[in-house]
Specification:
This protein is α+β, with helices and mostly antiparallel strands and about 70 residues long. The chain is built from 2 helices and 3 strands, in the order H-E-H-E-E. It has one domain. Helices cover about 20% and strands about 40% of the residues. A 3-stranded antiparallel β-sheet has the order 1-3-2, covered by helices on one side. The longest helix has 8 residues. The protein is elongated and about 45 Å long.
């Protein structure tokens, strides 16, 4: 994946973003966004998962990022 990113072969990323700790060493959605913001734009969420016992508590999302357009010279 790193090679494909460096070579510009990836134009969109659909990923799960966490707001709660489910796995050891996981990144949060916000950390993921910071990692991607240089080369990708956040487009939006494709799904949201809320807590069953706390309906206002967002647990995770599926989010779409697309590659930023290259500047024309």
């Amino acid at each position: 994946m790193q090679r494909c990113l460096r070579e510009g072969k990836i134009h969109a990323i659909l990923t799960e973003g966490m707001f709660e700790n489910f796995y050891s060493g996981q990144s949060t959605f916000f950390e993921l966004g910071v990692m991607l913001e240089k080369d990708f734009d956040f487009c939006g969420f494709t799904s949201l998962k809320f807590s069953g016992d706390k309906p206002n508590k967002l647990l995770w999302v599926d989010a779409l990022f697309t590659i930023k357009p290259k500047e024309l010279s």
